[in-house]
Amino acid sequence: MAVSTLSDLLDAGVEGRKILVRCDLNVPLDGTTITDAGRITASLPTLNALLDAGAALVITAHLGRPKGEADPEFSLAPVAEKLGDELGRYVQLAGDVVGPDARERANGLTDGDVLLVENVRFDPRETSKDESERAAFAAELASLVGEDGAFVSNGFGVVHRAQASVYDVAKLLPAYAGDLVQSEVDVLADLTGDPKRPYAVVLGGSKVSDKLAVIEALAPKVDTLVIGGGMCFTFLAAQGHGVGSSLLQEEMIDTCKDLLAKYGDVITLPVDVVAADGFAADAPHTTVASDAIPEGKMGLDIGPDSVAAFAEKLTSAKTVFWNGPMGVFEFEAFSAGTRGVAEAIITATGEGAFSVVGGGDSAAAVRTLGLGEENFSHISTGGGASLEYLEGKELPGVTALERGN
Ligand SMILES: Nc1ncnc2c1ncn2[C@@H]1O[C@H](COP(=O)(O)OP(=O)(O)OP(=O)(O)O)[C@@H](O)[C@H]1O
Ligand SMILES: O=C(O)[C@H](O)COP(=O)(O)O
């Protein structure tokens, strides 16, 4: 990665300067309680290094996918509090993103101060397809750190998004890769060169439309592609099975048919699923064959036979990349599939495989199910970002840094 790094910025000196840092603080929440702070703790080394060197920080981040307007459900308030605890210093939260409150607070920052502005996705220009709108928003973000400012990209989980606070702003300020972006890209590079075979990829989770596209690019590169979680139902539908009220991307059924025709020998789908009456922790549920999901039932986990079939593929792999839980692991009743697949990957790792878990919720699953981060070769903070990297796609947030300075 030919980019300027945090060390270059520290060598240039940050004392008395305001530094804009893009983090991925998109943590899972239960109401206002953070259920896994992994992405916050992963951000700390870079933030602490800058603060220790005398910088004042303006941090930008998103939370969830609000609709381009302020929405209390997606406020970064819980994140500001947790970040303050972790940094051991007060983190101010601006009531807006680039409005009067953010500007006034940014103006008043002195060395060692930390300001988090509100969820950048409260401003519709952040994710706009119109480059000039994004550029205008990026300019307002850049102005928060003034003439002498710099930009540090430290949100690996979001570098696959060509969004204003990730991509456009890097063109307006001297731009540097934070330690998290640099170290994640370095590790993932090991998976793109000449991975040890068999190479298995496990896909699940709920961002079906984002990640179905990844399969076309990954399938030819891997020996096994295991698909569970919310991802599998569009494939089951493509095989002509009813999926009840499970997560389904109807407009992608034909794509899945094509993928199965082309890569059927590589793709493994669940043979059974845990079908529930609704989306709730205590929903009555039963395990059914994946070609017999009853009308009105919702598949919330893969079943035990699927776990066994997936485990057989995974335990013999020498390289494993896993993104996306196999079920709604946040509910105990639907966590067995995720646990079972994780245990198979742990077994493979114990036998010398190189294993990477990528994604906010996937990494959270490893921690909340007590599976032991140390049992995997690497836990990545980025799900979509690492998948796109493995696909060989350009990561706009990294490209922008290469172009910068
Ligand atoms: N069968 C299912 N139906 C509905 N939701 C599911 C199902 N299986 C898993 N999920 C949900 O998928 C979510 C995680 O999906 P997601 O694609 O966001 O993964 P991730 O690891 O966070 O990756 P990224 O970092 O790209 O977001 C979890 O909250 C989980 O409850
Ligand atoms: O959770 C993630 O993968 C990142 O925070 C990016 O979020 P997004 O998929 O909503 O852009």
UniProtKB/TrEMBL annotation:
It is found in: Cytoplasm. Its main location: cytoplasm. ATP binds at residues 211, 299, 330, 359-362. This is Phosphoglycerate kinase. Pathway: Carbohydrate degradation; glycolysis; pyruvate from D-glyceraldehyde 3-phosphate: step 2/5. Substrate binds at residues 24-26, 39, 62-65, 121, 161. GO terms for biological process: gluconeogenesis; glycolytic process. Its EC number is 2.7.2.3. It comes from Dietzia lutea. One of its GO terms (molecular function) is phosphoglycerate kinase activity. Pfam families: PGK. Coiled coil: none annotated. (2R)-3-phosphoglycerate binds at residues 39, 121, 161. Belongs to the phosphoglycerate kinase family. One of its GO terms (cellular component) is cytosol. Monomer. The keyword Disulfide bond does not apply. CDD domains: Phosphoglycerate_kinase (cd00318).
